[in-house]
Amino acid sequence: IKKIGVLTSGGDAPGMNAAIRAVVRACAFYNVECVGIYRGYQGMIEGDFKEMGPRAVKNIINKGGTVLKSARSKEFMTTEGRQKAHANLKENGIDALVVIGGDGSFTGAEIFNSEYKFPVIGIPGTIDNDIFGTSHTLGYDTALNTVVEAIDKIRDTANSHNRLFFVEVMGRDAGHIALNAGIGAGAEEILIPEENLGLDRLIDSLRKSKESGKTSSIVVVAEGDKIGKNVFELKDYVEENMPEYDVRVSVLGHMQRGGTPSCFDRVLASRLGVKAVETLLEGKTNLMVGLLQDKVTLTPLEQAIKGQSRVDAELVKVSDIISI
Ligand code: F6P
Q1: What is the tens place of the pLDDT at every residue in 143-190?
Q2: Global pTM?
Q3: Contact 218, 185 (CB under 8 A)
Q4: What is the rounded CA–CA span in Å between residue 299 and residue 154?
Q5: Order of strands, edge to edge, in the sheet holding 295-300?
Q6: What lines the ligand 1 site, CB under 6 Å?
Q7: ipTM surpassing 0.95, yes or no?
Q8: Atom 7 of ligand 1: nearest residue by CA position
């Protein structure tokens, strides 16, 4: 392998820049050329490439977002789109790819590999932490800290006004952000897709809280939660059933995807970026680099996509116990 292309794809996540930096510098260290591909697979189709040496990635380890930009390319889902992308890679002498993204990006990488036998390695980058084969995806730790900081602020005002807040957090179909940030921020209840409490249980729990002397409450709701009502409908439902509560809603939204990456995410990105390059140079392909029990590991891309990243049952129990 002589020239490695690196791209970021799907929703951006803090730590993606640190991973790009690590890939570029590991390439330089091992005397392989490195090319940055802009806007994910869309840039691959359009030939939006830039040669990157070690100095091209200076001062980005601390930056949120992705300097290579990101996209969710519809065109790459077509055979013609992938054909164009492959032709561009060939023309530019790129003979392997590092794809930083989530399961949609990995699915694209897998299909591309199966069609063209093109060496690909994935680095899990998404705030959702919904990838099998790694305890942490890039950006997840930073997003947790962002959410906890936001809820701490909401708690101040909730407390001053004796209010109940529903705080909606991201995570797509997974409850990792909600569960962990909810525990970290001392939430009263945490609603996650993996465990549907049901509306009665929620009302019951809020009633008990009131009776036990709590004057304000935070309920963290994962965006993919399956209780059957969105946060605004939940507010109406609770106000109808418990008129004594003054309820407000806060949807944290895309602020969860931005900001300076935490030290954890920077170190993780650096480790995974180096390992991705080393793995390609060892002649391996179709793997995702990840972190399991603090060791950098390799998982087949297919498993990473199809496997379930489950929320920890112990955490669910802890949350139930300490919200008494
Ligand atoms: O996958 C990351 C994520 O932020 C999810 O948590 C969320 O559901 C989705 O992306 C939002 O996507 P978009 O930025 O396209 O609105």
Answers
A1: 999 999 999 999 999 999 999 999 999 999 999 999 999 999 999 999
A2: 0.97
A3: yes
A4: 39
A5: 49-51, 33-37, 3-8, 96-101, 120-124, 287-292, 295-300
A6: 11, 102, 126-128, 170-172, 223, 257
A7: yes
A8: 172
